[in-house]
C-alpha cells in the first residue's frame, strides 16, 4: 500500500520553505515518487517564478515517467504569470497525481483537467493541513480582502500596558521572537496612529532572519510625525490609511518620500476598516497582522474584518491599566465573541492562545 499521507507530509515540509516569500501566490510543495523513491522535489519560491510542480519535474527528468506526483495544492490549468502546470505534468508521463487542497481560484480546474487527460488523480489527502497552510491566500482569492490577525501581548489580568502607558515588555523574549517570525510571514503589520505616536515602533523583524513586512498606519487626520521610524526607514514599505480631511500638502510631502497614501471612507468619525481592507486587497496584500491598541482591536472586531486572534498571556499582573480590547458594545455574556478551533501553546514563559472567528 502506497503511504500517500507520508509523501504529502514531505510535500508540506517543502511548501513551508516558501513562507513569507510567495505572496500573492500560495505556498506549494511537490515531490515525485518512482518505485517508492523520491526522484524530484520542488517548492514555489516567489510569485512569477516556476511553480513547485515544474521544479520537481525538471529535477526528475525522464524518471518522472510512470511516477506519482504529490502536490499540496491543485496544479494550475490556466495561463497566469507562468504557463499551466497540468500540461507539463501530462507531457512528463506522470501516471498519478495526489493533491492536498483544491485551489479556490475559479480559473483553476487542474484536478478535472488531469482526469480528463487520462491520469489517475485523487484530491483531499491531508486536506486540513494543506488548507491551513494557505489560509491567507484562500481568503484573498475568495473575498479579495486580506486575512486579518489581531495579535496582542497582555498580562494575566488582561492588560497590554500599565496605567501610565508603559508596555515594554509584557511578553518574554521567546514570544517576541515568535511575533517577529510571524511578521516575516505576513504581507503587512498594522497599528493605529496612537500607537505610532506613543511608541514610534519600527515594525521590523530585527529579532529573527527574514524580510520586513509592509507597515500600515491607520491615521484619519495624517498626524504622523515625518521623522517617525517607519518613515525614516524603508518609507517605500509604508502605507498610511487616511481620510479626505487629511492635509494635502502633507500627503504630497509623504508621497515624495516614497510613502503610499490610501484615502478611505469614514464611518462615525473613524476610518471604515472594511473599506480599508478592500483597498488593501486591491493592492495584492493577502494578510495583515494588527498590532495596535485597544481601540483599533475593538474597531476591527466590530467591523467583522478579523479572521484570527493571537493573544500572548504573560505570568504578570498589572492591576489598573490599559485593556487589550476596547468597548465592543456587548452587554450580555451570551452575546460575547466566541473563538473556534482553539489552540494553546507555551512559548517561553508565556501562553499563546490562538483561535478563529
Spans of at least 5 consecutive residues with low confidence: none
Number of strands: 18
- Net shape: globular
Q: Kindly provide the radius of gyration, computed on alpha-carbon positions and rounded to a whole number of angstroms.
A: 23 Å
Strand content bin:
25-35%
Distance between the termini: 39 Å
What kind of assembly state do the chains in view correspond to?
Answer: single chain
Helix content class: 25-40%
Number of separate helices = 12
What's the rounded overall pLDDT mean? 93
> Helices and strands, in N-to-C order?
HEEHEHEHEHHEEHEHEHEHEEEHEHEEEE
Helix vs. strand class: alpha/beta
Strand order of the largest sheet: 11-10-9-8-14-6-15-18-17
Largest sheet: 9 strands, mixed
How are the secondary structure elements laid out?
Blueprint: H1 4-15, E1 29-34, E2 37-43, H2 52-60, E3 68-73, H3 85-92, E4 96-101, H4 110-116, E5 120-123, H5 127-133, H6 135-143, E6 147-154, E7 159-162, H7 173-185, E8 188-192, H8 193-199, E9 214-218, H9 229-232, E10 238-242, H10 248-256, E11 260-263, E12 266-267, E13 270-271, H11 273-282, E14 287-290, H12 294-303, E15 308-313, E16 321-323, E17 340-347, E18 350-356
Parallel strand pairs: 3-4, 4-5, 6-14, 6-15, 8-9, 8-14, 9-10, 10-11
Antiparallel strand pairs: 1-2, 1-3, 7-16, 12-13, 15-18, 17-18
Offer a concise description of the structure:
The protein is of the alpha/beta class and 357 residues long. It has helices at 4-15, 52-60, 85-92, 110-116, 127-133, 135-143, 173-185, 193-199, 229-232, 248-256, 273-282, 294-303; strands spanning 29-34, 37-43, 68-73, 96-101, 120-123, 147-154, 159-162, 188-192, 214-218, 238-242, 260-263, 266-267, 270-271, 287-290, 308-313, 321-323, 340-347, 350-356. It has a nine-stranded mixed β-sheet with strand order 11-10-9-8-14-6-15-18-17. Strands 2-1-3-4-5 form a five-stranded mixed β-sheet, with helices on both faces. A two-stranded antiparallel ribbon has the order 7-16.
Amino acid at each position: 500500500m502506497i503511504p500517500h499521507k507520508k509523501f504529502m507530509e514531505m510535500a508540506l515540509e517543502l511548501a513551508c520553505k516558501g513562507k513569507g516569500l510567495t505572496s500573492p501566490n500560495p505556498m506549494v510543495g511537490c515531490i515525485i515518487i518512482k518505485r517508492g523513491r523520491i526522484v524530484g522535489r520542488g517548492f514555489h519560491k516567489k510569485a512569477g517564478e516556476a511553480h513547485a510542480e515544474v521544479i520537481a519535474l525538471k529535477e526528475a527528468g525522464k524518471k518522472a515517467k510512470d511516477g506519482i506526483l504529490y502536490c499540496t495544492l491543485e496544479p494550475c490549468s490556466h495561463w497566469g504569470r507562468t504557463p499551466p502546470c497540468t500540461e507539463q505534468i501530462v507531457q512528463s508521463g506522470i501516471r498519478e497525481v495526489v493533491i492536498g487542497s483544491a485551489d479556490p481560484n475559479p480559473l483553476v480546474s487542474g484536478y478535472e483537467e488531469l482526469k480528463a487527460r487520462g491520469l489517475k488523480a485523487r484530491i483531499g489527502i491531508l486536506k486540513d493541513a494543506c488548507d491551513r497552510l494557505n489560509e491567507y491566500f484562500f481568503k484573498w482569492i475568495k473575498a479579495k480582502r486580506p486575512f486579518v490577525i489581531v495579535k496582542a501581548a497582555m498580562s494575566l489580568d488582561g492588560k497590554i500596558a500599565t496605567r501610565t502607558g508603559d508596555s515594554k515588555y509584557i511578553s518574554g523574549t521567546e514570544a517576541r521572537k515568535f511575533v517577529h517570525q510571524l511578521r516575516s510571514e505576513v504581507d503587512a503589520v498594522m497599528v493605529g496612529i496612537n500607537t505610532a505616536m506613543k511608541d514610534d515602533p519600527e515594525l521590523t523583524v530585527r529579532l529573527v532572519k527574514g524580510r520586513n513586512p509592509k507597515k500600515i498606519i491607520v491615521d484619519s487626520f495624517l498626524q504622523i510625525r515625518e521623522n517617525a521610524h517607519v518613515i525614516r526607514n524603508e518609507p517605500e514599505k509604508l502605507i498610511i490609511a487616511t481620510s479626505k480631511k487629511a492635509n494635502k500638502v502633507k500627503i504630497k510631502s509623504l508621497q515624495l518620500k516614497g510613502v503610499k497614501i490610501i484615502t478611505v471612507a469614514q464611518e462615525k468619525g473613524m476610518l471604515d476598516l472594511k473599506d480599508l481592507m478592500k483597498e488593501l486587497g486591491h493592492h495584492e496584500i493577502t494578510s495583515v497582522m494588527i498590532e495596535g491598541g485597544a481601540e483599533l482591536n475593538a474597531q476591527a472586531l466590530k467591523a467583522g474584518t478579523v479572521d484570527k486572534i493571537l493573544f500572548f498571556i504573560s505570568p504578570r499582573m498589572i492591576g489598573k491599566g490599559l485593556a487589550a480590547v476596547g468597548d465592543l458594545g456587548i452587554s450580555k455574556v451570551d452575546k460575547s465573541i466566541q473563538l473556534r478551533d482553539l489552540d494553546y501553546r507555551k512559548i517561553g514563559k508565556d501562553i499563546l492562545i490562538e483561535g478563529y472567528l
